[in-house]
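Quick one, T. Sequence first:
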Amino acid sequence: MADRGASALSLPADWPAHPDPILALNRMGSFDWDLDSGLFHMDARAHEIFDMPPEEYDGRPESLSPRVPPAEATRLDALIAQAIKDGSENYGAYFRVRRRDGTLCWTHTQGYIRRDETGRPRRIIGIVRDATEELRDLADRRDEAAVDDARRDQTNIVQLATAALAHARTVRDVIDVLKDTHGLTHLGATSLVMGLVEADRIRLIAEGPEGSFVPGTLVTRIDEPYPMSEVVRTLTPRFIESPDEFSDAYPVLWPHITDLRITSAAYLPLIVQARPIGAMGLLYSDRRGFTPEERNILVALGSSIAQSLQRAMFYEQEKDIAQGLQQAMLPRTIPSVPGADVAVRYRAATMGGSLGRDIGGDWYDLIPLPGGRVGAVIGDVQGHDTHAAAVMGQLRIVLKAYAAEGHTPATVMARASVFLHELDTDRFATCLYAETDLSTGVVQMVRAGHIDPLVRGTDGTCRRVAVPGGLPLGLSAEFGSLEYPVATLELDPGDTLLLCTDGLVEQPGADLDDGMRILTDLIAAGPDDVRELADRLIDVAEERGGDDDVALLLLRRRRLESPRAGGRLQQHVAPGDPEALTGARHMIRAAVRAWGGRDRADEVELVADELITNALMHTEGAAIVTVRVLDGSDRRLRVEVEDSSSALPRRREAGESGVSGRGLLLVDLLTDVWGVEARGGGKCVWCEFVVPRRS
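Structure tokens:
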């Protein structure tokens, strides 16, 4: 019969008397199992491994049953039967052997199946060896690997928490990071408590889970018998490793947390620059004790949390100062203006940079003026810092002062530009100033590099008003260009004028025109009430976010219950500026209609046009036209045209073919009274028209 199968193990001819020396050298035993006779022969080393002396063994596998537990024998038999059935050439397995003293030790066997030419298994030869040390070493390596994995996991948690804390800007952000699923909960803590030191007390700022608050611990003294107080006093972590230790050390606190089933706890002082700023407690319900590695990790985590809290506290302090400065620079209250509904809003940007940058130079103001007029200002100083806010505050004051002095809108803007240029700063500012006569609805506007205003009509439509502009404030004086063209429009009762800074318009990926169209549509679809509309616009700005401030002023003209006397409008008309002349005519026509002089509107406009044209033709420089209503025994409309020439106009007779000289004849014919007054280095030509009082 020829053997067929593995030849990896060949036993010597005088086996088992002289076993294979290589096997003996490696402390391995060998066996030969004759499947035909059922005899199971072993060498001396195999007898040692099974703890079965040769004289007690009869060669039958069943005789090894006292040494091989039944469960192990069943598993081995099934393994060998399956290998024979599958046609396998070998098999291997670990199994346990019970020695004479009752101890169990691990053994490994490797068998080689030999078959005849028909494939029938006839013989199994193999080896056995003691695997106790091998498996013990393997288990130790697995334990070490598990410890390394656990340590790596904990280190990763610290790294993740530290990375997340790096983005925390406020104390609330820090608390949210610690309560997040990627935070300390991975360390298995059941409950988290945290407090900040304030004077000689600790104020609780976080506790969880919900419902775990201990009455009387919201504010505690540092000398009270609580674990957070202890770690703040001693600057030393406190690790509590059992419920008994907890109840013995803190009998005042323990009865209040028994429902949490706490088994251990770690309380950490939060220290920055050798000074305690607070304390944190982690309470566990599924562990007892802490390994040295776990203690080190928690201490490191406490240090990281302390640094983040300190940064957050500094940030909030800076933010409070910045917001306080911002609010101090903006008007405390907006005056009530008869004839108008006004709403103002301000939204500070949320910058992702250094502390103190959550403040900008955006501002608004509303300035009551004589004669039922009101000035509305919107502006933006370059930059996002306290310097921008300081410049903004100074600009707001001087603009208000210039407007209150009675200067024309163009002069107000020009003087503000000179002021900013002479200020010791490198900042410039954009601004829009709109002066509205609420009795007539006439609005005179000047723009210094700012975005255009919008007007919403009573029918809900919204349009952008193109206002000719000059250079931003501070730059116009530097480049010698102090010309600010005046645009005039008329607000009907119920119309709303909207002034805003570019933070409300600019959007990532969109140009300014697209942003204005989006804003126009938003206003058209918004509520009628100006306060509700302002809230809606700010809500949209909040949802959109962005790194720019938003200032917003809405003025809605109401219809006055009775005519107002003492109205006054004024406009600067520069030589060679046909748009300014057209705007002045528009202003006069609107004022005359609003003040009850509709029947004489053509006369007033014609005379005013003649006086303005004379001033521009016969003098150097610009003309200032003023129209006002005077109440006395008669109700009169007064038109004044002021220029810089002291030469008085002379009434001349026109020739038969000439046209020059007819101007004053026309003035004399159409007005009720007119005259000339000296004004400093120039003069003022004035005229008055009697208009009936409204019933």
